[in-house]
């Protein structure tokens, strides 16, 4: 698949690049995408939720009524879950939500996400982007020139570019990461992928490992 290379002003540079078929041309595996996104979201959970059980409530331990003769059920403690303010039955406890996913499945998921974006024509290749200084205004203008204002964008660079990262981090719906940092969740969450020309070769090298 051939795509046009745009400059930072949104203009056609006259160049075209061929997206690697082994990455962008595969049939997306939806189940692999689901598993990788599920793992990513599970890893974000702190798992610190906790409800007090009957042994942890700060209430009196005296027997609240006599055992027999009341006509009702026996009741030995105000901490019982059947009373208001009592302990919680089977309440949440701290736990780790993370789970293992094979490297090949994660690689397939990332390839599938890139291929899905390519099929949806949601990938733009950008000539190498450089900013002389970290200025949010410059990055806003960059998005405006590409007609992407207000849309979720993910810019993929070959290496960390401090000026670009600092210029974009205060803009909503905008994310910048290197080719080595990409994950399936962010790829699928973006409306438009912006990939620098150098990052394409970096992606190919990473997936060939």
H/E element string?
EEHHHEHEHEHEH
Distance between the termini: 22 Å
Q: Strand tally, please?
A: 6
Radius of gyration over alpha carbons? 27 Å
Q: CATH superfamily membership of the largest domain, which one?
A: Ribosomal protein L4/L1
The shape is: elongated
Low confidence ranges: none
CATH architecture classification of the largest domain: 3-Layer(aba) Sandwich
CATH class annotation of the largest domain: Alpha Beta
Query: What is the number of independent domains?
Result: 2
Helix coverage percent: 25-40%
Q: Count up the helices.
A: 7
Mean pLDDT: 91
Strand order of the largest sheet: 2-1-3-6-4-5
* Oligomer kind: single chain
- Percentage beta strand: 5-15%
Largest sheet properties = 6 strands, mixed
Structural class based on helices, strands and sheet pairing: alpha/beta
Looking at the structure, the CATH topology of the largest domain is Ribosomal Protein L4, Chain: A
GO molecular function: rRNA binding; structural constituent of ribosome
Family: Belongs to the universal ribosomal protein uL4 family.
Region (Disordered): 45-76
GO biological process, one term: translation
């Amino acid at each position: 698949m051939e795509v046009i290379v745009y400059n930072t002003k949104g203009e056609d540079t006259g160049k075209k690049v061929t997206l690697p078929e082994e990455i962008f041309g595969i049939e997306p595996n939806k189940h692999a995408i689901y598993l990788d996104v599920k793992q990513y979201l599970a890893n974000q959970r702190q798992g610190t939720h906790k409800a007090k059980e009957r042994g942890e409530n700060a209430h009196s331990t005296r027997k609240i009524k006599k055992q027999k003769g009341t006509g009702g059920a026996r009741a030995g403690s105000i901490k019982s879950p059947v009373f208001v303010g009592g302990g919680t039955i089977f309440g949440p406890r701290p736990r780790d939500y993370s789970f293992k996913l094979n490297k090949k499945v994660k690689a397939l998921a990332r390839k599938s996400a890139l291929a899905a974006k390519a099929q949806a024509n949601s990938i733009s290749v950008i000539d190498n982007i450089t900013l002389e200084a970290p200025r949010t205004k410059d990055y806003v203008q960059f998005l405006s020139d590409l007609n992407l204002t207000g849309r979720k964008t993910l810019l993929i660079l070959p290496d960390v570019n401090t000026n670009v990262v600092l210029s974009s981090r205060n803009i909503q719906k905008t994310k910048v990461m290197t080719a080595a940092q990409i994950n399936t969740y962010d790829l699928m969450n973006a409306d438009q992928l912006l990939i620098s020309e150098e990052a394409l070769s970096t992606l190919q090298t990473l997936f060939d490992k």
